[in-house]
Every structure is written in structure tokens, then in C-alpha cells.
Amino acid sequence: MLNDPLYIQIIRDIQGKIDTGQYPSDTFIPSESELQDIYMVSRTTVRRAISELINAGYLTIVKGVGTKVMPSRLITTPKELISFTQLMRNQGMRPDARMLAIERVKATPDLQKTLEYPGELIEIARLRTADDTPISINTSYLPSDLLVKHDPTIFRTRVSLYEVLEKDFNIKVAVTEDTYSAINANASQAKLLSIRKGDPLLMIERTAFNQKNRPIEYSIIFLRADRYRHTITLRAN
Amino acid sequence: MLNDPLYIQIIRDIQGKIDTGQYPSDTFIPSESELQDIYMVSRTTVRRAISELINAGYLTIVKGVGTKVMPSRLITTPKELISFTQLMRNQGMRPDARMLAIERVKATPDLQKTLEYPGELIEIARLRTADDTPISINTSYLPSDLLVKHDPTIFRTRVSLYEVLEKDFNIKVAVTEDTYSAINANASQAKLLSIRKGDPLLMIERTAFNQKNRPIEYSIIFLRADRYRHTITLRAN
DNA sequence: AAGTGGTCTAGACCACTTA
DNA sequence: AAGTGGTCTAGACCACTTG
Fold first, then answer.
1. How far is the C-alpha of B202 from the C-alpha of A179, rounded, in Å?
2. Smallest CA–CA distance from B82 into chain A, residue
């Protein structure tokens, strides 16, 4: 923490002051030259920190006037990539998962193309719950060459698949492409999710990429529309 | 253009070289010191330009090695805010809209709260089509005090509501909050969209804000799930 | 060892807002 | 006129990757 770059430390400090209300919503934070004095750094470093906080949606600049704290409504939903475990935790729910299957499977032509990998895949199917209510059926496919370090059963040890990838396999998801659609539940989906056949499901297909732009996961998620809504905040360029 | 800041001109130039293939996908662009010589600017200015291109998804940095052009797959789906007109054009379709209603309405309590406006609203309901196939029913509510400059019928003159707001009212959308859900079509929705009652619809509720964080539009959109998929690319922080 | 990007400084001049 | 952020320069030292 103490060895982190100065601008990171400044970001953390300002973020903390926003969160604790020392810099309330819609008020101006100290000017850049004041921040230079506070943190004893150059203006470039102050501006670097402010620039990232603007990018993250915490601050906004009014030309010729000053730098203002964004209304918290717009702070709380960052446009960052987020895992479903995190999403549910953010909504104050206790996420869990029941493993339906962990198997080695052959890739279909579509999956081969999407994952750019001709070999075997690991299929992980899970029923996700929040506060013990079934929320979604989540089926992931991962190239097996990425997962040689441990037995696939390691995915039983944690609720978040992305946490297993990061902590046990050192694989970090950098980019996702999410496609939203809607379908009617079929009989088996309805049974698993405790709803009726024909009820609406939000369907999300996600392809995840690592830092080197290699596809590392394709997943298809069926979410109960009555229990779950997915919100995303976007900013114009 | 010539009076634009240097870093903007550099961004445009590099973007152009990526688009025309002079800097092909997955190859390294010149190093920062080479770019200093090319553009005759300081390293700070070069880095400013590169930083924004990384943010926009065009470039990626490999530590200690160089700066690489992102694969075009990941460039083509920017995470920017985008209008539905643009979205359909991007998919190679010809978007159009049939006006269903332009009316002054009283705000429901929910709408009053969402739009933070107690007065009358302008309701604009439209059937959106792509290549003459009905795609979505789009109902927007806007505070009437924003629209005094012209008669509301001006919304008939353009296909894109956001274009009318920007060009005729000088109102720019800066941030949107989109919530995704799914429902089954009711009888009237099914009729308008040429589908059957009970067929799945993707529902998107959007609240749009201007640069000053004032809510300027609430819209609810019902999309035919069989004809339309909505893709978003997200990056980790 | 050489080259790359990562961080940081100390200045400068400008356009914009407010009084 | 004074204060704000917007842009830019010319240096410096560092950590990381590769030959």
C-alpha cells in the first residue's frame, strides 16, 4: 500500500472522503493547486488521480469553476466488468451455487470458433441462488489446456468461478462481451428455477477474454426475469 | 480541426492508421520516443493520446515490450453509450420508426421520482422497425420544460430521438442507466410486433441524464427477442 | 545492456467562469 | 482581475522484458 504510486494513494484517499461524506455529493472538492499542497505532489500527479476518478464516475468537472462529486446514484453502478457473485452481493443478497455438472466435453463447431480452441473443454453447469431462491442456470465452457494446474473439481471450492480462475489458476478476465436476449423457459429450466414453463428468462451469453485477448470462457446464463434485473451505466464519449 | 489539441490530432492520426491497416491488428505501433519524433511533441502528449486510445479499446500495452493494436473484434464493439438508431445501423439494418403517439401526460409518482420533475411530461411512443420488420416498441417520457423551444411534433422529423434532442434542442445525453429484463408479450404488444402473445420480449428501461446529471428521459423498450440481441463489451478496472 | 513503458517534477501559457 | 481547469514541455529515475 505504501509503495503504491502516489496517484493511486491519492485516488484511494479522495474515494474514501467521498464514501465517508467528507466530500458530499454535488459539492466541489479542493482545487488542483490546493490538492498539490495537501498531498505535496506536482499538478500532473493530482490531475492523474482526478482523471481516473472522473473515468470511474466519481467526479465531474465544471469548466472554469471546479471539480464536483458526482451524485451517488451515478457512482453506485460502475460500468466495470463485474461477476455475478459480485452483482448479487452488491444487491445485498447472499449468493450461492449448486453444482449441476463438471465434465470434459468435445467442443461444438460454434464453441471451437468462439473459444479459438480445437481441443477438449471443461463444462461447468451450476444453479445459482441468492438467499436460497434459485436465480439462474449458468453453464460455462473453458479450454482444458488452461486448467491443467488443478483438478476441475477445484471449482467446487468457491462460489465465484472468476475467483477460482484468478486465485487458483492465475487467470484474469480483462474483457467480456455480453449479449442480452430473452426466451421462454423450457420444462427442465422451469423445474430447476422453480417457475412455470413459458415464463420469461433473461438470457446472457458471455465470452470472456484475458489480458492477451485470448478467449478463456464462454458462458450462457438463464436468469429468472421476475427475480433479477441487470443494470448497466454507460457514458457518452 | 487544426486548432484541436495536439493529443486529439495524434489520436485521430493513430486511429486512422489502425483503421486503414497501416498499424495492423496485434502488431506493435512505434515506441513512445519514436512517436515523439514523428509528431514533434513531448512524451507527456504522446502518452496522453495513447492513454485515451487504450481507454477506447484500440490499443493495449505489453509491459517492457511495447504498445500493440487490439484485435479488431474487440474494437468494433465500443462500450460507449449508443442510440438504438446507431445500434441498428451498425448491424447493417435500415432503421425507421412509426409514430404511435405524441402526447402531453401527467407524471405518475414513479415517473416524477425518476425524472425529478413534478410537471407535465411529453410521451413519445414509437414502433421501431429495421428493414421494415417491427423490432421494438419504444415509449419515452421527457420533462416538458426541456422542450419549449419547438412543438413536440418536431420528433416526427427525424428517426433518432437523440438526434432531435441534440440538434434541435441542444440537449446532449451524457450518461444512461439501462436495466435489462425479460417478459412475455401481451396481446397488444404481440399485435404491434407481429408475434404471438406470450412470445419472449427483451425489456430495457433506460434513464438518460445530461452533462449536469439532470434526468432528461425515461424510456421503456420492448424488443422482439427473436430479431434482436444486444451486445455490450466491458473492461475490468 | 539496451529498450520499453510507469511515474513524477517544476515549470509555462491558455480559455473559461465569476465577480 | 483572480481563480479554475486544459494543454504542453523538457527533463528525471524507475521496473520490466529481451538479447
1. 11
2. A236
